[in-house]
Description:
This protein has three domains: 82 residues, Phosphorylase Kinase, domain 1 (2-Layer Sandwich), CATH 3.30.200; 168 residues, Orthogonal Bundle (Transferase(Phosphotransferase), domain 1), CATH 1.10.510.10; 201 residues, Rossmann fold. It contains 15 helices and 19 strands. A nine-stranded mixed β-sheet has the order 13-14-15-12-16-11-17-18-19, with helices on both faces. A five-stranded antiparallel β-sheet has the order 1-2-3-5-4. A hairpin with a 3-residue loop joins strand 4 and strand 5. Helix 4 runs antiparallel to helix 8, helix 6 runs antiparallel to helix 7 and helix 7 packs antiparallel against helix 8. The C terminus is likely disordered.
Amino acid sequence: MDQEIWFQKYRILSLLGRGGTAKVYLAEHIKLNSYRAIKCISKNHPLYELQRNEALILKNLKHSCIPIIYDIEEDEEGSYIVEQYLEGVTLKDYVSAKGTIREDIILNFAIQLCDLIHYLHSTNRPILYVDLKPDNIILSGMILKLIDFGSAIYQDELSKQQDYFGTKGYAAPELYHHKQIDERCDVYGIGMLLYYMSTGLTIGKDNAGIDNIDQIGNCSKQLKSVINHCLKFNPTQRYASVAQLNKQLSAIKEKNRLPFESSQSLTIAIAGAQPRIGVTHLAFRLCNYFIQQKRRCLYLEVNSSGCVWSMKNCYENVKVAEGICKIEGIPMLQNSQKGQVDTSDFQIVIKDFGKLTKENLAEFLSAELKFLVLGAKDWELKFTEQVLNMVAEYKDIAYLFNFMNGRQFQQAMNSMERKNSYRIPYEPDPFARITEKNGFELFYELTRPWKKVGLRMKVSALLQRRRGCHET
Length: 472
């Protein structure tokens, strides 16, 4: 590019980054008074032709997740790609700062990425990206942008390509062994990014040593299954296309969709058929579940037990801010301050009604999700029958049985007339981390979206047997 013309058009402001084959500068377009990123690829580098290939690929691509390419120039020293300057952070920095990401955000990013990679695979000359890694993704707000197409290759040129360039630990195994590749190598790359976002773990150079996703991470069993499917060593065992992967991720997103927008609040009401049936214990555990999912959740005491006041005076290092005290990581508001404190900042408010009565029934029924804790011991049955008669006409209540084993639960189910009923897994510590063994599946099922006719809940005999149908 002629130097005089170069300086007439752009003013170089700073060096943004330096890679193995190129430098990226921040520049200002003088006439338009706007920023540009200029990638300079030196002809002296042995991989110049490979990097020049990036410019040739990018010039014909147009997608919302690819930076806009304004200009491509070449001179005696090298090639120059002038593209949109993106303000944001890399996915690597984003995950490093947060540790792990909420599943809804993971799905949002992954679906955007699938749409982009599917676009690359579907162009007139299909393109394989090959080198998906968190360093090559910039988050501009919540919009994903894929940069650095230096390793991308046209699929019809694969037979001519002797070496593929991918980052060990993220790229598909077949790239290391000089085997024929296809779009399933990008399926693997998306799987590694899903793994990284779900666990927060930095992938080593030898990806054979990564931990089993089933044993780590806070993501749902469904997402773990997708990740495992993507990361099969044999490409024939992976999803055949990114479109298939996108379909699976979209299905999980739909199942996980909570019945409220992020700017609104979801109210969950929990009450019991009698005192001391485990309502507060369950409320704390449900709060923990949402907090683990990175949701802003508040425990609201709607009974006269004085539980929050007692805990505040018993626990050490309790922080109180604007009337809300934080105990064992859970924001709590005691009954005496209900209505006096602004709770609009919380996405989820869990109301603990204690015992359900005629006096608090209307407020209980006004919640979006309603959970009623019942007992089935001989001395508890009269209370259970009374409260069931009280709510008999309402079809959108979930009934939870506490303090019973699997066999006892099956007996109780016989008298529930196909109501939405569940057994609460035993966990003595209300502040314990929620895992698949002590309630994750139950809470996931209870908080799934519902149809107009009521909560989408089903009683699974297999699930109950797995939870200990034959416990003593």
